[in-house]
Design brief:
alpha+beta; four-stranded antiparallel sheet; two-stranded antiparallel ribbon; 6 strands; 31% strand; RRM_dom; RNA binding; RNA-binding; RNA recognition motif (A.k.a. RRM, RBD, or RNP domain)/RNA recognition motif. (A.k.a. RRM, RBD, or RNP domain), putative; RBD_domain_sf
Length: 86
């Protein structure tokens, strides 16, 4: 049996404004590292969204984690290195 694992340079951002856009995310995190992809998702049964940011290198993870607790559209956001919904 062969197991395939993919390691990506990804962080998850929670507690986002309903009005946040990909442009807002890219602007806030652009200095961390080159952003490969931004994906928005919603928590099941709610309108509250979170996003997944994929960086080119692990430097993006390190630098973006320093932004934890900062404001984006007047709301404090939180960075997670892993995320799952039960």
């Amino acid at each position: 049996m062969s197991l395939n694992f993919s390691i990506a340079n990804v962080v998850y951002v929670k507690n986002l404004s309903a009005n946040v856009s990909e442009e807002d995310i890219r602007e806030k995190f652009q200095e961390c590292d080159e952003i490969i992809n931004v994906v928005f998702k919603k928590f099941p049964g709610t309108n509250q969204k979170y996003c997944q940011i994929e960086f080119k290198t692990s430097e993006g993870i390190t630098k973006s984690s320093r932004l934890n607790g900062e404001l984006l559209l007047k709301i404090f956001f939180f960075i997670f290195l892993y995320f799952f919904i039960c």
